[in-house]
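Section 5.1 Outputs to date
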Amino acid sequence: MQPIIDVLTAYGPGVVLFVIASVGIYKVFQGSIDGLKKSNEALGQTNSRFESEIKDIRAELKERREEAQEEREQSKKYRAEVKELGSAVSSLENQLEKQSSLIKKLLENVAELSKEVSSIKEQHSSSVDRIDDIASSIANFTHHLEHSSSVNPEVIEFFEEKLNEHNLELVRLKDMVEGMSPTAVSIHDAVLSVLEEDAEVVTPEDLEAVLHTMLDESED
C-alpha cells in the first residue's frame, strides 16, 4: 500500500489515474486485438475451407461440363445415326416399292405369257392336226396318181419328187409354232386344187406352176 501512496505523492493523482486508465485501455485493446487475431485465424480457416470447397466445386463443375460435352457429342452422334438410319429406311422403302412394282409387272408378264403359252398349245395342236390332214391328202393324191392309167408316168415321177420335198417341209413345220397355219393352209389348198383338176390334162408344167404358187404363199 505504501508504494502506491509514494507514487501518488510523487506524480500526483492525475498522472496516476492516467497511467491506470492507459493500462486499462491497453488491456482492453490487447483483448480486442487478441480477439481479432483469433477471429482472423478463424476466418482464415473458414476461408481455407471455403477455398477448398470452391476448388472442389470448380473441379466438379469442370467434370460436369466435360460430361455434358460428352453427352452433347454422344447426342449429336445419335442424331446423325438416327438420320442415317432414317435415310437407310427411306432407301429400303423405295427399293421395296420398286421391287413390288417389278414383281407386279413380272406377275403381269407371267400371266400374259401363260395366255400366250395356252394359245400356242392350241395353235400347235390345231396345226399338227392340219398337217396330218395335209399328209393324208398328199398320200391320197399319190395313190390316185399311181393307180390312174391316164396319167403320164413322168408326171407321177415328178410329183413324187415334189411330194418328198414337201414331206420334209411338213416335218419342219411340225417343229414350228408361229407361222405354221398359213403355210399348212396354202399347201392343203394347193393340193385340193390339183385334185380337182382332170388327171388327163395334168402335166409336169402344171404341177410345177402349182408348186411355185404354194411356195410363194408359204413365204408370204
